[in-house]
Amino acid sequence: MLDKALLLMETLAPVTDAAPMGVSELARRSGLAKSTVHRLLRHLVILDLVLAIEGGYILGDRLAGWTNSIGIGVDVAQLRCAAVPYLVELHKVVPTAVVSLGILSGARVRYLDSIHGHHPPPAAALSAWAPVHCTAIGKLLLAYRPSIDVAELLGPGPYPRYTPHTRCTPAELGQELRSIRVRGTAFDRQEFRVGMVCVAAPVHTIHRPAVAAISISDTAQADLAELPRHLHRATVGLARAIQDIDIE
């Protein structure tokens, strides 16, 4: 049974949340019976090794926790530790907002840490994961990836629509990514959650661009004009702090 579970997870490895795989397709690609696939998926979902989303299945969140360095060239635990003072200082400037640190993990954003005030944070800020195509951190980190990588990560589209403002086609997203590369910041203007806006800036190292990003999320009434300046101080400070833990 273990070998069949591993086969199923290997089949799911290239699958993204933009194009989840259903039971029938999993059975066809893996060569397993549909009844076997269905039974295995039930157990793998319980173990958080596979995630059931609208339209099918993708690999689950638990896998990312089994490795400290997930392709960004920096130890995740050390990155989180180094970021804490910068997140705290940034939150003092924007006490009503949610300040977050995130990285790219496959076709999703993985939030490593978030700080919020006394008011309940937006729903998106409570999640450890989020889609890349409609979040500020996700779009920012995609913008620093080669175009071919973005196409492989997200597939041909259309991408899932979360709000009326979500960019759902490769053409729309591609235009936005080009703009992000020019200005160096990314915005989410109610693209993931209605009533919520966000701005993100990259954390560069001397070896890799945009190994991580810091974001500020707030309600749609927030003024985004001054936030990039505050973010810049935090991201530059964190970039300097992690130079010694950057992995060649």
UniProtKB/TrEMBL annotation:
GO-annotated molecular function: DNA binding; DNA-binding transcription factor activity
Pfam families for the chain: HTH_IclR (PF09339), IclR_C (PF01614)
Domain of life: Bacteria
Keyword match Transcription regulation: yes
InterPro entries hit by this protein: GAF-like_dom_sf (IPR029016), HTH_MetabolicPath_Reg (IPR050707), Tscrpt_reg_IclR_C (IPR014757), Tscrpt_reg_IclR_N (IPR005471), WH-like_DNA-bd_sf (IPR036388), WH_DNA-bd_sf (IPR036390)
Domain IclR-ED stretches: 66-244
GO BP, sorted A to Z: negative regulation of DNA-templated transcription
Swiss-Prot/TrEMBL keywords: DNA-binding, Transcription, Transcription regulation
Record domain HTH iclR-type: where: 1-61
Identification of the protein by name: IclR family transcriptional regulator
Native species: Nocardia colli
